[in-house]
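Task 17 of the worksheet. Students: predict the tertiary structure of the chain below and write it out as structure tokens. Keep your answer in the requested format; marks are given for formatting as well as content.
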Amino acid sequence: MRNTHLALALVAIIGCNGKDEDSSAAMNFEPSEGSWSWSGASYALDDCSLESAFPPAFLDALVWELTLQDSGFRLETATFDPLDCTLTGMDFNCPVVLETEVSEWPEGSGQTGDPDVSTVSTGAVSGSFIDETSSSSSFAFTVVCSGADCDAYGAAAGATSPCDSRIEGDFVLNQD
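Model answer:
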């Protein structure tokens, strides 16, 4: 009986030590600082009909500067507001809130003037790093419209409110 307890204790110690080392390595992970870009971006869901305004080629062409912070990292590009991202092991999450005042009707809508439309997009860029220079990522968000012209604008844009969209692809360090 005593040998059984000793064997079980050794198995538990060995098993826990292996898990602690793996957890410790994941907790100490940091992506490389520098210029990053989407690669192979595609819309997995586009109920908001955004692909025409933000096609995958546009998204792949954006360059994001990644800088490390205490709780994760920050992503900055000239086109959008900075994103503060948390890092848990090799998984990351970057909450996004984007408020937009729409100033023109969709092309081909036949509408003129300044539409009474504003949108709030909420969601997150998230994913898992494969290593210090690449990750599998997605940007999932919901867009909600407000204003007197939301229904007409949505009909012209081919979207309802609220609507959901999700972009998937790889996020990789530029190797210049």
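Marker's comment: Residues 1-30 form one domain. The radius of gyration is 22 Å.
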